[in-house]
């Protein structure tokens, strides 16, 4: 890394970021931390995605997948291993939340094994009116 992490800039993702984002995501896919994101899926998510970068190096990515005015999901949130624990992920979540507010979305969900991180960003297992998410696995990840 060539610059201090606090100089990381979070901005909307654009088409020319595609290859760098896919390269950033791949190790996390390989380690089964996130589900694969196909090029076509990424293209569809780009208008509601954000990257973090330092000196033109993409060090983080997060997408807001807006399903309806009621619900959106933070997807494929990753930060390069050497940049984790320094607030980059939080800033990407904040960008996604701000976009959801701008689009007047009611609820945002995140599916993650990083419970403490998302709790620190204000997420919880239930909504104030006791709504809960339920899951039924149909097949294993491949």
Explain the layout of strands and helices.
Elements (H helix, E strand, L loop, with lengths): L8 E4 L5 H13 L8 H7 L3 E6 L2 E10 L4 E9 L8 H15 L4 E4 L4 H6 L22
Parallel strand pairs: 4-5
Antiparallel strand pairs: 1-2, 2-3, 3-4
Short overview:
The chain is an alpha+beta fold.
Structure, described:
This protein has helices spanning 18-30, 39-45, 88-102, 115-120, and strands at residues 9-12, 49-54, 57-66, 71-79, 107-110. The protein is of the alpha+beta class. The chain has one domain: 3-Layer(aba) Sandwich (Aminopeptidase). It has a 5-stranded mixed beta sheet, sandwiched between helices. The model has no long low-confidence stretch (mean pLDDT 89).
- State the separation between the terminal residues, measured CA to CA: 32 Å
Kindly provide the radius of gyration, computed on alpha-carbon positions and rounded to a whole number of angstroms. 15 Å
Q: Summarize the main sheet.
A: 5 strands, mixed
Tell me roughly what share of residues is in helical segments: 25-40%
CATH class: Alpha Beta
CATH topology category name: Aminopeptidase
Give average pLDDT, whole number: 89
How many strands? Answer: 5
| Percent strand | 15-25%
CATH homologous superfamily? Gcn5-related N-acetyltransferase (GNAT)
The tally of helices reads: 4
Outline the low-pLDDT stretches.
none
Provide the structure class.
alpha+beta
Q: For the largest beta sheet, what order do the strands appear in spatially? A: 1-2-3-4-5
Instruction: Write the CATH architecture name.
Output: 3-Layer(aba) Sandwich
Number of domains: 1
Q: In one word, what is the shape?
A: globular
Order of helices and strands: EHHEEEHEH
């Amino acid at each position: 890394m060539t610059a201090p992490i606090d100089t990381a800039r979070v901005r909307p993702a654009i088409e020319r970021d595609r290859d760098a984002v896919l390269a950033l995501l791949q190790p996390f896919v390989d380690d089964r931390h996130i589900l694969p994101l196909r090029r076509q899926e990424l293209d569809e998510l780009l208008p509601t995605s954000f990257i973090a970068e330092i000196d033109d190096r993409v060090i983080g990515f997060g997408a807001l997948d807006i399903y309806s005015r009621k619900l959106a999901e933070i997807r494929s949130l990753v930060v390069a291993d050497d940049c984790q624990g320094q607030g980059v992920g939080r800033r990407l979540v904040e960008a996604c939340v701000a976009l959801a507010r701008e689009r007047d979305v009611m609820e945002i969900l995140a599916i993650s094994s990083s419970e403490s991180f998302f709790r620190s960003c204000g997420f919880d297992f239930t909504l104030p009116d006791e709504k809960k998410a339920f899951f039924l696995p149909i097949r294993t990840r491949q």
